[in-house]
Write a structure and sequence with these properties.
about 325 residues; alpha/beta; elongated
Length: about 325
């Protein structure tokens, strides 16, 4: 199963996904058109995110709006403001304006767009186009950018392992190492660990996460209702174990002790309440913890979401100073 733009929102959050979405569009257009370029906002971008052409002639302007959920009144105002800035620019002449959004429009949104587009085309005699999620995903996949943007190298590796398992009569309790081509450094679960000053044994936690991903992918691909329910129940039990320990935890800086306590509970209850019909060991169960962290439903210090936000802002500032 291939990923779409919702994956960016889940992985990077609302603010982070905006930059990743714009970067994905830039890379896709640059791969398809040799004369496609992004514009740095310094101090303004003159209404351009990406353009195709040469400023000595009329250009095509592409505006990337990271609207995941709706095109309401606020979003419409932003679209109008961007178009107005571009059409009134004295720096360049525009022959085409294109709106890029990571969603499919509803009937009401499409009706508004059609009316808006017709009015602007009639008033300014230029070409206007909408690139929604379907068209953008097609372009991104045509240029192979999706492998990088949606971390699909990881999916490909998981699928290879699943094919290997399908050739075996039984699911062996085999523990897989994380392939060299998979990098978890920017995954939310890793950033959660680092923000809680858990900096040792990250390779172990990566391995746990990777094997939990294999388990999840295997169960989902088989589609057996009993196993799907069992996995959901197991995930819920592990989250409850974390919550019990979390409610008693007071440290807002260091999460090593909390992680250790939850892992110990998983080991203690492995053959008790965590016993399951699935062929799964403690490594996969501990990996489910990091899957939950990747979904931002568990953390390792009090106020872990605020701690993660501060950690990311500090890192972004540090990178900017390098």
């Amino acid at each position: 199963m291939s990923r779409d733009f919702d994956y960016l929102l889940k992985k990077h959050g609302k603010d982070g996904s905006r930059a990743v979405f714009e970067d994905a569009c830039t890379k896709a257009f640059s791969a398809k058109y040799k004369d496609a370029f992004p514009i740095k906002c310094d101090p303004g971008d003159e209404g351009i995110d990406i353009f195709i052409g040469d400023f000595k002639e009329p250009i095509e302007v592409y505006q990337c709006k990271c609207f995941f959920f709706e095109i309401g009144e606020s979003q419409k105002k932003q679209i109008n403001a961007s178009f107005k800035k571009a059409i009134e620019s004295t720096t360049y002449e525009m022959k085409k304006w294109c709106l890029c959004v990571p969603k499919s429009l509803t009937i009401d949104e499409m009706n508004w767009w059609s009316d808006w587009k017709k009015k602007k085309v009639n008033n300014h005699s230029i070409e206007i186009e909408l690139l929604d999620s379907t068209k953008l995903l097609k372009l991104i996949k045509e240029t192979d950018i999706h492998l990088e943007i949606f971390d699909e190298e990881e999916l490909q590796k998981l699928n290879e392992i699943l094919l290997l398992l399908e050739k075996k009569e039984e699911r062996l309790k085999e523990i897989f190492s994380v392939p060299d081509e998979i990098d978890y450094d920017e995954r939310i679960f890793t950033l959660k660990l680092k923000s809680a000053n858990i900096n040792e044994n990250l390779d172990v936690y990566n391995k746990q996460f990777f094997n939990a991903e294999i388990l999840t992918k295997e169960v989902q691909s088989k589609g057996i209702e009993e196993e799907l329910k069992e996995l959901k129940s197991l995930k819920s039990l592990i989250q409850d174990m974390w919550l019990t320990q979390y409610l008693m935890y007071e440290d807002e800086i260091d999460g090593n002790k909390l992680l250790g306590m939850v892992n110990m509970r998983i080991e203690d209850k492995n053959n008790d309440i965590l016993k399951t019909v699935l062929s799964v060991g403690t490594i996969e169960k501990k990996g489910i913890l990091h899957q939950l962290a990747d979904e931002c439903t568990v953390g390792w210090v009090k106020k872990y979401k605020e701690r993660l936000k501060d950690f990311l802002e500090k890192n972004d500032k540090t990178r900017g100073e390098i």
